[in-house]
Design brief:
single chain; alpha/beta; Rossmann fold; Dihydrodipicolinate Reductase, domain 2; 6-stranded parallel beta sheet; 18 strands
Amino acid sequence: MKIAILGFGTVGSGAYEVARFASDIEVVRILSRRVRKGYEDIDDRFTTDLNDITGDPEIDLVIESIGGVDIARKYVLECLNAGKHVVTPNKNLISSCFGELTEAAKKNGVQLRFTSTAGGGIPWLYNLLRTKRCDEVTEVRGVVNGTCNYILDAMHDNGADFDEMLVTAKELGYAEANPASDIEGTDTLCKTVISSNLAYGTVIKEEDVPCYGIDTIKACDVAYLKEKGLVPRLMMNSKLHDGVVSVYVEPVAFRETSLEANVKTNNNLITLTAENVGTLSFYGQGAGMMPTGQSVVQDVIDIKDGVDMYANAGACADAKVDNSSAVHRYYIRHDRMCEHIEPLIDTYEEKDGIFYCVSKPISVVEMHKIGKHRKEKGREMFFAALED
């Protein structure tokens, strides 16, 4: 099978390196603004013109690794409409354009595969779809962002400050120069939308998913929770019940003996629950050049071999999202009591002018509304659901 790669950054070059070891796969074109250093010996494969790919009848499949949404969407649609299979690790693209792209693939009789968009090198989406073939998936949840987990794990183990560990995460390559997508939770949100859509056969809109990240956490939060035998993790949460999806992203404080509390460094732990098989969890590297590249090429090989696990996982009706029945007690840290928070507090401790609180049962909708309001007013707080 002759294939092309759009974009030749970390993931694109990783996919190329893995593809070199796969039988019967040849990368014949690479769309890139320049020849990447170290690849001068294949400079004749590089192009800046997408038509060199869409117009080549010998190219059967395209790997999209440009990133972002607008340009990637345009290029992917052109490739699908040209009758090319498309494989992409672009979670932002798949999360925001899931319905449109899956329908375009169906219309043109080609495959759109994106196993690497959630879980990186972990075969998470593959096994989610495999389970769905003969079972009803009712819940997906997990630690799906390695950057946040690295920071939280180090803060818990070493008593480090958030800003200190964010700098270290950047130095180690776990965090981007602009880490907002990771620490504010939007990376986790995209993976939550994709996982939920595949699990339930739905189209969930990103704007319907409440999201609160770890950008307001402080060392004092982690220390307080540690005293109580709790460990914070940023979680994907999604459940299906009677045709209604409850789906949101937020920090959760787990008992220190739980699986989630013991996810170390930048690893992921992703879990599904289904009617027949029960609960299954998947652990491993959720990102990185070679793990993600390996996952991308696994999709390529499946298409080459005629394996289509996505055949029955395309877009269905828009999902009915309702988080009103998702209710938890929350740990809340803030600098003063106010009319929005005080009626919701069950118990609290005050230390050096900071209030460490445990709430009464509060809906996810209400808690996220308060957190967003405090951020907008410049009175940041941190909260974490207490594990049920």
